[in-house]
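User: Can you write out an input/output pair for a complex, sequences first and structure second?

Assistant: Here is one pair. Inputs:
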Amino acid sequence: FAREPYESQRFSGVATEAMRARVGLSTKESMFSVVVGSLTVLGSTLVIIEGGLLVLRGSLTVGTLLVALAYLGFVYGPLAGIANTAGTIQQALASAARVRETLALAPERQEPGQRVSERFRGEVVFDRISFTYDGRPVLDDVSLTVRPGEFIALVGPSGAGKTTLVSLIPRFYEPASGHVLVDGLDVTRIRLADLRHQIAIVQQDSVVMSGTVMENLRYGRLDATPAEVRQAAVAAHAHEFIVDLPEGYDTDIGSPGTGLSGGQRQRISMARAFLKDAPILILDEPTAALDTISEREVFAGLAHLRAGRTTFVIAHRLSTVRNADRIVVMDAGRIVAVGTHAELLRTSGLYRELAAQFERPQEV
Ligand SMILES: Nc1ncnc2c1ncn2[C@@H]1O[C@H](COP(=O)(O)OP(=O)(O)OP(=O)(O)O)[C@@H](O)[C@H]1O
Ligand SMILES: [Mg+2]
């Protein structure tokens, strides 16, 4: 969601608070240790002087004075220990300073890159892409040109490289060779924040952050009004279950006991994508997380969501695939066939196999 600056600010707010608490505590501890130290020295001196005088006058024996001094020692031990904790806290402060340094480091490669402020038309070109994970080839010479506003369904067996391919658009990964172009611009040359600003993603495993439902939804667009947020939730079929939560949109879904189901998280994630209103939409369809009914509900909003956007859906269901302008069949890191549902049923054996599986989504 290209929310790095927001997240950084959120964290530094909390970190500064913790820091302030630590500094306050440490100041008090240090003052305490000074006071304790002074009292210790002063106390011993007084006892020795007073005791010495008494011994000289003969009203106290040397032995009693020594015993009194020994008792004093018992009291000083623990006091010194308490004073020492101040030192430990100093060390903790130093660690906190190092954490801050780490946070200050530039995330990923924030290279200058070209600023793109106008909205993309949404043309996406994969040009002879190869990609490896730890030396293992995952994508092999993949080329595909997607027109602005086109609806592409990606299908293929598990591990074919579908998620990896679409992850190259927002540059979660970079190809070993080849280029990804958006509106003719190589994505590696576009400023990362500007690139991601134009892409909305609903991931295979949707994440929900701590905070209220409203905060989670507004993550899609931080300046959205409550009315806009509600509208997005309705479009994503999330509104129904949200109003049934204990405190509706103000329910804290980060706290234990208010866990959301996979399908509900997915709908929150869809609503966020609605709010973001980006020209490129990427949807990694969940499989196991959703039962058939909530799947239908979630993706009922899709037709509305993808209007006017270049849309990539990694699809496991026939109803999604059927509506696509083009279906891309992937297998073992390659595109093995491209076409409409009817075309592929005739031309691709693998597609026929997959299509048969789509009819029984529970098996995936
Ligand atoms: N972070 C990673 N580190 C190493 N290997 C990975 C990583 N992510 C994916 N892979 C490997 O890359 C290959 C392609 O994975 P990818 O997630 O793109 O497949 P997929 O087509 O999306 O599969 P699925 O339908 O199960 O989601 C797989 O062999 C997978 O094991
Ligand atoms: Mg995947």
